[in-house]
Amino acid sequence: MKKKIILFVVIALIMLSGCQMRGLSGTEVMASMIEADPSATAYYMETAYEGNESDPFTMKEWRMPDGRYRMEMYEGEDLAYVSLYSDEGSVTLDYQEEQILTYASPEAATYLAQTPRESTMQMLEAMHDHYEVEVKEETSLLDRDVFVLQLKSKQSNNDEMEIWVDKENWVLLKMDLAFDEEWMTSEAVMFELNPEVEDSYFVVDESLDFEKVSLDELSALESIELSEAQEMATYSFLTPTDEYHFFEASTYPRQEDEIGINLTYSDESGQILFSYEVFKRSDPLVAVFGNEEEVEIRSEEGLIIWDESL
Question: What is the pTM of this model?
Answer without folding.
Answer: 0.64
